[in-house]
Amino acid sequence: MSKILVAYFSASGVTAKAAKALASASGADLFEIVPETPYTKADLNWMDKQSRSSVEMADQSSRPTIASRVDNMEQYNTVFVGYPIWWYVAPTIINTFLESYDFSGKTVIPFCTSGGSGTGKMDEVLHKLCPATVNWKPAKLVNDFNEAKFKRWIDGLNL
Q: Per-residue pLDDT averaged across 104-108, rounded?
């Protein structure tokens, strides 16, 4: 039996809700990707080009520090990685997360929430951050997913 982790970053709670439903549907452990320095409302003001999130997203080398680590990552065969879409891509803290662990031989499945963007080239960008030996599954936009929809999606993944 595959051991599953749902790791997620959520700025407003929308992705957290989806991650919890996914973890429940899949029987997975849950890990919140929390920035060492939490984002304030002002940090998340995408209309302000000097806000923290705007500055981070404009800098492809930005890697916000994560407050804690997943214990015993080696025990997981499958890792779902969830995030809101920012500026048509994953927040840079997701890059930090993907570069912080060895995902060799694991199945990695991104899922995201969005106020209006699609998944675009996220798979291509994020997959490059993992070793070639990762079994990468396409990112899934899960805005309207409940536990039943997550179960159907999981069943179709043939984990």
A: 95
Count of residues for the chain?
A: 159
Angle at 19 between CA 18 and CA 20, to 5 degrees: 90
The number of C-alpha atoms within 13 Å of 157 and in the hemisphere containing its C-beta is 24
Contacts of 83 (CB under 8 A, 6+ apart): 8, 9, 10, 15, 33, 90, 91, 93, 94, 110, 112, 113
Beta-carbon-side half-sphere exposure of residue 25 (alpha carbons within 13 Å): 19
CATH topology assigned to domain 4-157: Rossmann fold (3.40.50)
Spatial distance between the Cα atoms of 100 and 92, rounded to a whole number of angstroms: 13
pLDDT tens track for 51-101: 998 899 899 899 999 999 999 999 999 999 999 998 888 999 999 999 999
The Cα 77–Cα 91 span in angstroms is 24
The pLDDT tens digits for 62-73 are: 999 999 999 999
